[in-house]
Predict the structure.
Amino acid sequence: MLAKRIIPCLDVKNGRNVRGVKFSADKDAGDPIDLARRYDAEGADELVFYDITASAEKRDIVAALVRRVSEEVFIPFTVGGGVRTFEDIRTIIEEGAEKASINSAAVRNPDIINEGSRSFGSQAIVGSMDAIRRGEEDESEGVWWEVVVDGGRTPTGKDAVAWAEELVQRGAGELVLNSIDADGTKDGYDVVFTRTVADRVNVPIVASGGCGGPDHMFDVLDRGQASAALAASIFHYEQYSIPEVKTYLANRGVTVRPRLDLGL
Amino acid sequence: MIAIVDYGMGNLRSVQKGFARVGHEAEITADPDRVANARGIVLPGVGAFGDAMINLGDAGLTSPIVKAVSEGVPFLGICLGLQLLFTESEELGVHRGLDLLAGKVCLFPEGQRIPQIGWNQIHIQRETPLLAGVPDGAFFYFVHSYYVSPSRKEDGIASTDYGIDYVAIAGAENVFGVQFHPEKSQDAGLKILSNFGNLAG
């Protein structure tokens, strides 16, 4: 059986962790490689590096990070955050990441999805979106979700479900759905949004935003039909470890990958 | 020397780093002579089957690979590299493969999300040195939309369930192919790279 994936997200800037991370005294709290190694050792199925570097050297900084990660960590990883051009995608893939995640740039220039998937394959191109819930459940028109860009600040008028279909049609091999309403609340993912998109497209869906614990992951993987659940804070601040999450999910009948230690 | 064949189909450095991690030196090369003289040949790759065969042919790599394999040099195909071992593929039209193993490459039937992305289990059908120390039921990282269907049942080494039971590891004698990415499958995958490195001597 294909396992549901648990994906820690690391926020990095200028090659350093952004969030404060508790570490034992001998560890460098700022080095994302240390954190990536820890997640790998705990049995994370994949990692996402979300880069918020805003300098002119961004591409070189990202390239150096990707190169180091691929030397140290033998699980798949994705790089997102300000991926704007074909050259950005090429750098990320050629330095050793599995996937480049494209968000606002795809809204502004949708052809980047076609170009990326044509050159590197659909499996390398993740269509990522931030969405906000609009309307009320009891209104005749019901709820819909609007795509927003620039980290949630700029509304686009785009319907998120239709945009998801377009991203897939253009060649995205996977979608990350980040709910701006849920993000940071720890009240759970937007399960209805996730399920609505999952029912409309045939590629794997990664749910993002709102995770406060393993019960939320269960909901979005089960009712939400997500293939993977992404979380940041609960792992960064060690509220839950990856083995704890996986044990919880396994006990509720979800197929997860146990960590296999062959001493290598 | 283990040769990782560079024919313009995806990132090869992760495979090289995987071998390095388990103590085997591997060289990324597009040179037909280096490939012809290698003690082991690794053919990774992601992308379209037809493009891959054209690239191999244009680079003068097809015949050195086929010749070395027929002389008994250990060969490992990874992902697209497994699929290229077979007679033909139905990906975007019908394309001829290397035909080192008899069979064809087919699109997953409807009913599952495509591509399959993620960790899935292998069910070992028969023992092989490539799988020494790898437990039955181990998870590996898969990313693919097409799967191989060998003509000879005995060419299937391990199977995986994704709506259908399909062959995840194929091989005969010195030829092996794995549908998953051992270089991204943590200890289980590194063990396979280590075993292949030992086979290549």
Summary: Chain B touches chain A at residues 10-11, 13-14, 17-18, 21-22, 46-48, 113-121, 133-135, 138-139, 141-145, 161-162, 181, 183-191, 194 (CB under 8 Å). Residues 186-200 of chain B form the longest helix (15 residues). The radius of gyration of chain B is 15 Å. Chain B has one domain: 2-90+100-200.
